[in-house]
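Continuing the series of single-chain predictions for the mutant panel. This is the parent chain; the variants come on the following pages.
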Amino acid sequence: MDSADNEGFFEAYWPRGARQVAPKALAPRLASLEGKRVAFLWDYLFRGDRIFDTVEEGLRARFAGIGFVGWRDIGNIHGSDERAVVAALPERLRTLGVDAVVTAVAA
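Parent structure:
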């Protein structure tokens, strides 16, 4: 487009490239957290220690029989070995009998 003829219109390019990975379907939601075991995953970067205490308190008040695997039990999911830690998570969560996960990341 010749800049003399643009009449206030300009060419623009979409800054995002083509998707490299096909989207995956989300896991189905649980009908309830009642009687379920919930794990807390955290990258140790932004107040998860305080946030998870509050979330746990609220969930305990709302769902009978709910259980937790705390962030201290799981450990840091971020760092130099992050890829290995995250790759091992599904099996670890199965071993711990986890039904659902609450994860927090740095803000």
